[in-house]
Amino acid sequence: MKKQISGEREEFNSILPEYGRRKLLTYADSIRELANSFRENDNAREPAEGELPSDRRDYIWQRRLSENKDLMVEHLQEMAQIMTQLAEEARRCVPMGERRLKQISHALREVDIQLKSLYLIENEMGRMEVSITIRNLKKSTLSAEEIGDLLSVLLNMRLTSAQDNAFFLGTDWQTFYYVKEAKYHVLTGVAKAVKETEKISGDNYTFFETNTGNLTAVLSDGMGSGDKACSDSTLVVELMEKFLEAGFQVEIAIQMINSALLAGGENCNMPTLDLCSLDLYSGECRFVKVGSASSYIKRQHLVDRISAGNLPLGIFPKPDMEAVGRVLMDGDYIIMVSDGVLDALSQGIGEDMLSEFIGGISLENPGEIASAILNFGIQQSRGRIRDDMTVLVTGIWKKEE
Question: How far apart are CA 113 and CA 116, in angstroms?
């Protein structure tokens, strides 16, 4: 497959061979047809206005079956979409002169690295990628990061190692992948406190990269406290990370997690979900909230509060999600908290109090900021910890040119 880019002569080519691309698209079409067949065969009928179902138990069963079919349709369509995106993913190979390639090969030889192939690739986002196949001629240890630093100098561009690279270069031929370094870098900090009557927190969190240049933070507050709340929030955090790393869209991932919680019936304690996805190339971030506490963006002494008024997961077949986008700047901080932090503050004005306190913080280290916010909440509740409290802080800074 080739895609002509407007205003340019170069063409973007599919990363898959034509045969593999066509086969993947065929699979995607088949999955879409299966999804449509589920939708067409849904015979559940809603009672007319004022009409009572003849058999209430049978109606509830049919209604639940219809809702499960709707969820299955959405999941199948998402799978088909992921396969289509992979089949249509394209790259443009940037030509490199033979003389320059020989110069790079000679430079690598001086550090006992033998070059087999080197490709410069531009993806559809305009970001440069490098694929290099090399081997180590001696037994000295060379890491993927060290090789990336060397390539950055030789190619005159800042490169960072892709996530799936081997850690060290061995004596056998190996292929390493590098991408252009992101514009921003981040530091994260966490502070937690467990409810005074419990031994384990019902809050859980994670920071992870879905791909190079993207940082995602997830915080889940299990309803109540103790082992059950911890189990529910752990399920949300772990599944969210797995689904996003597999390529699912955030909304579909949340829907599937919600379905898993509903399947637990009365055993589900309705955990919340607070997610922030940060693009380190553009500085754009996206918050997705389901029943979670407010989040905050601190820009010097100014504070932007991001709130949502929806309910937690595991209540309705289709969760109510609220998404908000922001563009961050050098020196901004993202602050995410669990409900226990706000509940520790004065009733009714907790969010305003926290905004004012965050605006007055002069600390720069994310870990110290998180600890300061946690301590403020504990002080406001006179040293009592009546609920699990968690604070996540992410600081973003522009890299030096």
Answer: 10
| Cβ contact 388:194 at 8 Å | yes
Pairing of strands 113-123, 128-136: antiparallel
Rg of the chain on CA atoms, in Å: 26
CA distance linking residue 272 with residue 311, whole number of Å: 8
Residue 382: alpha-carbon gap to chain centroid? 37
**How many CB atoms sit inside 10 A of residue 194's CB?**
20
* Pairing state between β 214-221 and 168-169: unpaired
Q: How many CB atoms lie within 10 A of CB 250?
A: 19
Residue with tokens 């939708």: 39
Tell me if 159 sits within 8 A of 212, measured CB to CB. no
Positions in the chain short of pLDDT 50: 1-10
Question: Residue 300's Cα: distance from chain center in Å?
Answer: 26
354's tokens: 């926290």
Cβ burial, residue 63 (10 Å; 0-12/13-18/19+): middle
Q: CB within 8 A of 353, min separation 6: which ones? A: 345, 346, 380
In this structure, are residues 332 and 303 in contact, taking their beta carbons and an 8 Å threshold?
A: no
Residues 225, 229: Cα–Cα separation, whole Å? 5
Span between the terminal Cα atoms of the chain, in Å: 36
**The Cα angle at residue 83 between residues 80 and 89, in degrees rounded to 5:** 135
pLDDT digit string (tens) for 318-352? 888 989 999 999 999 999 999 999 988 866 566 78
Q: How far apart are CA 169 and CA 136, in angstroms?
A: 6
What are the backbone angles phi and psi of residue 7, rounded to the nearest 5°?
A: 85, 0
Do the beta carbons of residue 200 and residue 226 sit within 8 Å?
A: yes
